[in-house]
Amino acid sequence: MIARRGPNWWHSAIVRGTGLLVLDFDDDIVGYSTYGRNRVPSMPYSGEIFEIYLAPEQQGLGFGRRLFSATRRELAEHGYLSTIVWALADNEKALAFYRSLGGQTVRRAEERFGSDMLTRVAFGFVSAPVR
Hints:
The chain is of the alpha+beta class. Helices cover 30% and strands 39% of the residues.
């Protein structure tokens, strides 16, 4: 996923001012998150984690939790004290991950990805991020 994004995507994210955290391990980028203001103003959350990704070989080691917490802290430092994050409904690992962090399911929505209609689940976080 990291390599598939390509240099143009990374450059564009930086130029647009998208919040971006990168996790490196042993001189390799193994994860990242993008974040900013919530894109769904009708939902009562100020911040949003747009993407959070961790290479499969790094999952289950606590890095995802640390990346999530660091992203929430960054959002809070910019005044976004509540956070929303979306996951695909058929991604059981992601759903379990956000539940384990205290996320509450706050919405389900259908979205077209190419020719497929997929269900997304929104998790809301209102407590202060872990320091």
